[in-house]
């Protein structure tokens, strides 16, 4: 599977096809990021439990009959929830050999961390495919990064990015690429940062890593106002946001969700290159 995946990196965006489903029988070889109750397999405890607050996490959008792009499904709790609610879901997950955009921390053994991360993501992906099989799911998965979407995925009624932007070195490029393929609504959910929530409408962004804190997998924390202002620039006219608590290892953490609707296509969708 790894060889098959890495072969994609030599293809152009238009040539990339959906990942062939992995055959995973044994949940003990899986890591579940989400707590998931998987049909005919049981309950698996994960790092986060989105079950009680899933509707708020998804911005209370209508899912039935919608073609949904889910960026970064991890174990797929949201994926299969949305499919069960009647959406046609297409997911984009990071390639096996490029699992994240790592912060250049000078005092860490980044190579060792990178190898561990590759193995960790493989275990999360096995959990996704284990659940996919048990749900008898039709969800397609593409391999890639959210700022370079494979064109074969097509267009979407709704795009969801939950807990993704904080991991992206260039969040504006990701919002721009995702907006360009979305016709109906875009949903952005992030964990709220207490300092930024004092003035939630201000367009604030917190640079998370420092040499002292040694954070290597998170670049940013955002205010709701930052996401709203960025989406306005990308042509989204009707913007709403809400806050909600989500559970991680028994503790409630405040999150916010911004929903953009009613988008006017932009010249920026076509290309960032200039002809004049
Ligand atoms: C914190 S998990 C969130 C999982 C799920 N979306 C949720 O809201 O619970 C972040 C997910 O985004 C993926 N991810 C991170 N950076 C990405 C990128 N540049 N392109 C696509 N997926 C990315 C990770 O691999 C992982 O699956």
Q: Indicate the proportion of strand residues.
A: 25-35%
How much is the average pLDDT? 93
The chain-level structural class is alpha/beta
User: Which ranges are low-confidence, i.e. pLDDT below 50, for 5 or more consecutive residues?
Assistant: 1-9, 272-276
Which architecture name does CATH use?
Answer: 3-Layer(aba) Sandwich
The CATH superfamily name is Vaccinia Virus protein VP39
Order of helices and strands: HEEEHEHEHEEHEEEHEE
Number of helical segments? 6
Unique bound compounds: S-adenosylmethionine
Tell me, what is the CATH class? Alpha Beta
> CATH topology, which one?
Rossmann fold
Task: Specify the biggest β-sheet.
Answer: 8 strands, mixed
What is the element layout, followed by pairings?
Elements: H1 2-7, E1 36-38, E2 42-44, E3 48-49, H2 54-57, E4 67-71, H3 77-84, E5 88-93, H4 110-134, E6 140-143, E7 156-162, H5 171-180, E8 182-191, E9 205-207, E10 220-222, H6 224-233, E11 236-248, E12 251-263
Parallel strand pairs: 4-5, 4-7, 5-6, 7-8
Antiparallel strand pairs: 1-2, 3-11, 8-12, 9-10, 11-12
The protein binds S-adenosylmethionine.
């Amino acid at each position: 599977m790894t060889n098959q995946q890495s072969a994609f990196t030599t293809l152009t965006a238009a040539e990339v096809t959906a990942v062939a489903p992995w055959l995973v029988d044994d949940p003990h070889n899986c890591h579940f990021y989400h707590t998931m109750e998987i049909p005919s397999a049981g309950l698996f405890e994960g790092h986060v439990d989105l079950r009680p607050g899933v509707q708020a996490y998804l911005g209370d959008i209508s899912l039935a009959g919608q073609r949904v792009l889910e960026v970064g499904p991890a174990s797929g709790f949201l994926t299969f929830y949305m499919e069960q609610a009647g959406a046609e879901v297409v997911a984009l997950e990071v390639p096996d050999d490029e699992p994240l955009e790592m912060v250049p921390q000078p005092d860490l053994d980044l190579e060792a961390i990178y190898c561990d991360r590759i193995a960790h993501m493989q275990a999360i992906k096995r959990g996704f495919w284990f659940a996919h099989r048990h749900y008898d799911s039709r969800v397609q998965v593409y391999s890639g990064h959210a700022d370079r979407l494979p064109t074969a995925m097509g267009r979407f009624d709704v795009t969801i990015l939950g807990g993704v932007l904080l991991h992206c070195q260039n969040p504006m490029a990701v919002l721009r690429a995702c907006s360009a393929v979305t016709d109906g609504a875009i949903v952005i959910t992030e964990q709220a940062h207490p300092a930024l929530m004092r003035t939630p409408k201000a367009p604030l962004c917190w640079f998370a890593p420092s040499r002292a804190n040694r954070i290597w997998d998170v670049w940013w924390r955002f205010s709701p106002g930052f996401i709203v202002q960025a989406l306005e620039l990308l042509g989204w006219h009707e913007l709403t946001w809400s806050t909600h608590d989500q559970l991680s290892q028994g503790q409630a953490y405040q999150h916010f969700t911004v929903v953009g609707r009613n988008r006017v296509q932009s010249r920026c969708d076509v290309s960032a290159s200039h002809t004049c």
